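Quick check before the chapter quiz. The format below is the same one you will see on the exam, so make sure you can read both the input and the output lines.
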Amino acid sequence: QVQLGESGGGLVQAGGSLRLTCVASGGTFSSYHMGWFRQAPGKEREFVAAIYWSGSRTYYADSVKGRFTISRDNAKNTVYLQMNSLKPEDTAVYYCAAEWPSGTYYYTAMNEYDYWGQGTQVTVSS
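Here is the expected output.
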């Protein structure tokens, strides 16, 4: 069983930056692919970014490409989401998720992920 805990959310002005952190416990973090998703009020949860268990591959939604960076530190059981040039439309609850590798990594598919955190609120004011 893996427990995930996000932090780093908050209120920021448009154009600003935040770094989200997700710390894992209770499992072999370095074996899991990790993803970030977000859910805005009244909308479905959507994929934001993902990273291979080794950190060798990263993936991004088109809406955040070039502004967000996902990274991980397996020694610290931590995955990060650096968010720059934030826009009001980035306002959402951000969740991290862990997937045990089993063949092709369908990184955008929420039902492929085995564990989820509770989320952290990000609010971007205009």
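If your answer matched, good. The CA atoms of residues 2 and 26 lie 5 Å apart.
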